[in-house]
Amino acid sequence: MFITAYCPECEEECEHEVVADARDRLVRCTTCNHVQRLKKEKASEPITVKTIVSREDSSVVCGIDLMPDDECSIDDRLVAECGDDAFGVEITGIETGERRVQRARAKAITSLWTRVIEQVVVKISVHDGRKTIPLYKECEGEDPFVVGDIYTVQGKRFKITQLKLRDGPLMRKEGWKTVAHRIKRVYGYRI
Q1: Domain-by-domain residue ranges, the chain?
Q2: The model scores a pTM over 0.70
Q3: Residue 119 has what pLDDT?
Q4: Which among 43, 58, 137, 152 is placed 20 to 30 Å from 15, CA to CA?
C-alpha cells in the first residue's frame, strides 16, 4: 500500500510505501528510502443529532447523521430520518445545552429544531368584500406562488395581492414570486 506523506529528508510531500501498519505506521519514502513512523489518524464516526421535526401542528423526534465537525446554521436544509421515513427539513433552531444559537458544530449540538419543507400547507386569507375566508392548500414545498396570479383553492377563485414570508417581508409588487415553504400566509381577494 502507498500513501502520500511529508518526507523530512526530501523536505516535501511525496509517495511512501507502508512497510508496517500497526499502532503507528512504518513508511519508506519511494524517492530517498528514508524510513519514518507516522501516527495513524483516527477516522471520525458520524454522530446522530437529536432533531425535532415539525409538520404543521405536530412534531416528532428524529435524527440527522452528521460528522462531528460539520457546521449547522439556521435555514440550512438537511434530511432527517424518522424510522423508515426520511424528510427534507429546514433548520429553525439550534440548541447547544441551555442556549439557542445561530450556528454550531454537530458535536456541540444537543437538539436541532426543524420543519418539513417537502410537503407544506399554505394558509390563505381571501377577502370577498364583507368577510375574510380562511383557506388551506397542501402543496409541494417548491411550488411557486406569484403576486397578481389567479388561483382556485377549495372551490374559491381568488387573485393574490400579497405574500407574507416566514422571515418577515411582505411581497406586494405584481409579478413577485416565491416558493410555498417560504410563505407564512397568502392574501388575496375573491374573483
Answers
A1: 2-39, 47-116, 119-190
A2: no
A3: 87
A4: 43
